[in-house]
Amino acid sequence: MNEELETVEQSQGEAQELEEVVNQLKEQLASREQELGSLKEQLALSVAEYRTLVLAGVPEIPEELVQGSTVEEINSSLTKAQEMVERVKSQIEAQKAKERVPAGAPARVAPDLSALSPRDKIAYALTKSK
Question: What residues have CB less than 8 Å from 16, skipping those under 6 apart?
């Protein structure tokens, strides 16, 4: 019976030691979770600041086109936005080129008489000499 009592006491001592270890681990886990939350907040703030700086460097890109919660996502979004802006610019320039009207009056040149028949050429010359 003495042996059994010693075994029970020894088991209770080991159980208390294990409970202390478990409590220490729980405290460490809570501390790490708090630290992780703090790091996530810092990362979010850093990414937001990075986005702001990137947009300040390329003012022709609308802010709405650059989104993301990581630096990689922002870079990818920025690349796509730049491609879109370049496409729009080239389309606008192409449209302007189609609609371009020369300034001023057309240049004064003699009419092209090569397509006229000999009879029409003579008639033209007679009307010009009058």
Answer: none
pLDDT at residue 9, rounded to an integer: 81
pLDDT in tens, 10-51: 888 888 999 999 999 999 999 999 999 999 999 999 999 999
Left, alpha or beta for 102 (phi > 0: left; psi -120 to 50: alpha)?
beta
Q: What is the 3-state secondary structure (H, E, C) of the chain?
A: CHHHHHHHHHHHHHHHHHHHHHHHHHHHHHHHHHHHHHHHHHHHHHHHHHHHHHHHHCCCCCHHHCCCCCHHHHHHHHHHHHHHHHHHHHHHHHHHHHHCCCCCCCCCCCCCCCCCCHHHHHHHHHHHHC
What is the phi-psi region of residue 104: left when phi exceeds 0, alpha when psi lies from -120 to 50, beta otherwise?
left
Kindly report which listed range (6-10, 94-98, 106-110) carries the lowest average pLDDT score: 106-110
Domain-wise residue ranges, the chain: 11-98
